[in-house]
Amino acid sequence: MDLGPHALFIVASYAGMVVVLAGLIGWLIADGRRQQRALADLEARGITRRSRAL
Amino acid sequence: MPTMQTSQSITQKLANPTRFMDLSGRLLPWITVASAGIIAYAMYLVFFVAPPDYQQGQTVKIMYIHVPSAWLGMMAYALIAISSFGLLVFRHPLADVSAKAAAPIGAAFTLLALLTGSLWGKPMWGTYWVWDARLTSVLLLFFLYLGLMALRSSIEDEALAAKLTAVLALVGVILLPIIKFSVDWWNTLHQPSTGLTTTVHASIRVPLLISAFGFSLLFFAMHMKAMRNEILRRRVKALRMAEVERAQSNSPPGNPSVSGDIRARAAQAGE
Asked: Among B86, B131, B203, B212, which one is least packed by beta carbons within 10 Å?
């Protein structure tokens, strides 16, 4: 696949997109796991939610 | 007015965080897989099917991620503004969760629009950056995102932070039409809208629309995940506060070891 004389700019653009989106997705997954662990830790100590609302 | 009553109840029905967690828990995998599949198909079209542009040659391939990023950067801000309106006017319990969750994702897509735009500008315009009306207004949008996140993190009281951030978000909405029409109002280096115009041949327009659709689904999947994280964070905070209150009520007054433990948990709850 020939990307022409400006191939570097095309590759850099797509690489930038992959880095930014992979970083964002990774952060979302890690943040979710951290909150789940904190919640499990609290519930292990007998601290549970009285109402199901929040 | 039964219709208003019915639509009000639908919004209210979704206002319950527990119901949102249940619904989004079932939807999220499907949206994630769908967005991945559609983006993969779009990339196949971009790199193996779509022709080079008669003027720009292969660099037109940057358009397939630049245009969706710009659209999503603006759409995310519109979502924040709508959520902020929902918070200030309807006190919708998930409005602030939605607004807070959308900000980093919108900022990321706006950053991508600026990055891919300047990488596209260098070979086509001969420069990475020019203080053009479109580019400058999108840069302002990116700073506005950073401002929203900074304002929110600088205020301890969550309810106050939500209100002030919502007001800033609504004031900043004026930037969206400025960005949209900047290429029409001012004499800009940046070309007019690419989107759905028929002047763009279908062999280039169809992959663009599929790419935009795929990235839009990805945005909604990330926004849903961020909202779920935020709801869990607020539950953790509420439970830690409950733990501190329980410890304070159970402890005899003046007992140093217990009060030390309480201070530690109170500090943790404040995180």
From this structure: B131
CA distance B49 to B67: 19
Distance CA B195, CA B193 (A): 6
Task: Please tell me if residue B59 touches chain A, with a CB cutoff of 8 Å.
Answer: yes
Q: Which domains does chain B have, with CATH numbers?
A: 16-223 (1.20.120)
Q: Do A4 and B120 touch (CB under 8 A)?
A: no
Are B96 and B87 in contact by the 8 Å Cβ rule? The answer is yes
Q: Encode B226-251 in three state secondary structure.
A: HHHHHHHHHHHHHHHHHHHHHHHHHC
> Which residue from B minimizes the CA distance to A21?
B108
pLDDT in tens, B23-74: 999 999 999 999 999 999 999 999 999 999 888 899 999 999 999 999 999 9
Distance from C-alpha of B210 to C-alpha of B13, rounded to nearest angstrom: 33
Q: Which residue of A has its CA nearest to B94?
A: A54
Whether B211 and A17 have beta carbons less than 8 Å apart is answered as: no
Decide: A14 and A1 in contact? Cβ < 8 Å. Answer: no
Cα–Cα distance for residue pair B39/B216, rounded to 1 Å:
10
- Are B121 and B127 in contact, with CB atoms under 8 Å apart? yes
Per the structure block, which two tokens stand in for B214?
A: 């795929």
B95 near A CB under 8 A: no
B37 token code pair:
């599949």
Global confidence as pTM: 0.87
- Per DSSP, which regions of B34-177 are E strands? none
